Amino acid sequence: MRASEAGLSPGDQLRSFQHKQSRRSLSYRLGLAVNGALVGERSRSFAHRASRCSFCDARRRSAVQRTSEGAAQPPTLREMLRMPNPPASNTAAAGLPRRELGRTGEKLSAIGLGGWHLALKHVDEPLSIRIARSAIDRGITFMDNSWDYNEGASEIRMGKALRDGYRDRVFLMTKIDGRSRREATKQLDESLRRLQTDHIDLVQHHEVLRFEDPDRIFDEEGAHLALLDAKKAGKLRFIGFTGHKDPHVHLYMLEVARDRGFTFDAAQMPLNVMDAHYRSFEKLVVPELVKQGIGVLGMKSMANGIILRSKTVTPTECLHYAMNLPTSVVITGCDSMAILDQAIEAARTFRPMSTDEVAALLAKTKQAAARGEFEPFKTSSIFDSTATHPEWLGEEPKRKTELMTS
User: Fold this and answer.
1) 320 to each of 325, 348, 368, how far by Cα in Å?
2) Fold for domain 98-392?
3) Which ranges in 233-302 belong to alpha helices (H)?
4) What pLDDT is recorded for position 380?
5) Residue 73: CB atoms within 10 Å
6) E strand segments, 45-123
7) What pLDDT band is residue 48 in, cutting at 50, 70 and 90?
8) pTM for this structure?
9) Residue 305 CB: number of other CB atoms within 10 A?
10) For 10, which of 24, 70, 74, 328 could close a Cys bridge (C-beta 3.0–4.6 Å)?
């Protein structure tokens, strides 16, 4: 301890230690890891609090636990430095790459945890919570969900998993199906209750599949106004959209938004080794998103395992291919700890692929991908939940229905 610190209380010594360590570029030598990864902890008003060192927090908690009967005292610096490092799996520096979400300034884990799988029939609630919390502890910061996943069970389970401080460590995204202002508002409020939070970091218009969807969303009675209202009220921070049917619908959504003077923060679409060969989002949509500074969210890297049935690629090859694109996050569903391990290992071992490596992978999948056989979300309605439940979209604009009765 320096002479200047000799008169400090143990608590002030701790704060001094944390401040100095946060300024050292080589702080990783002491095993420091910023709690909550690069996303950081946010206050409820979205203002970022000062970074906290999980290395120091772990040492302090351990010292308090060892304190004998009586009031617990903060540890001295000497005690802190004698304590063991927290396990690597509990630090944010788990070796997972971080990427920027478009122009938002957010830096997120290159892979995200999908929400749909967390409430499948063979995944019970304790397992789903374990998967979500383990993913966060091991460095995944992006949580995906949707108002309609498993009749709301996916959001409910994620809400439970994000208790006990886990909410502050993630970037939370969900989606709404409503095309009308009223329906979108109702669904968003339900999502907030299920997720047990007062704000969601990114809310996306879900399943933009039909050419009329952008017009309905941006109508003067449309869902876009609901999200703008929610943003003003502090219920959400960023706005995006998703779709899995046709890249031209994505491009039209961007066109309609541009005509209304709006630029999305993120857009989500299928990005996989088959997509490059058939109605390709990679070729048509991704370049436009990059041009506009919109975050690229990849999904269906394995199409819920369907692509693997082609027997042309491995799970790791699928994830690496999607990560090799200019994606901000590749969202992957995990219905077991083994699948989560697989996803984290793929992210940890990812290295940019050479042109030859990409070409070899695409050559292996070209024939199988030619007609969209292993991307049924493009060629059938099996994945279209809003086609099965059109009531989720809400009412058509009143003035348009009146045209039919006048």
Assistant:
1) 9, 10, 19
2) TIM Barrel (3.20.20)
3) 247-259, 281-284, 286-292
4) 87
5) 13
6) 98-100, 107-109, 111-113
7) very low
8) 0.76
9) 11
10) 74
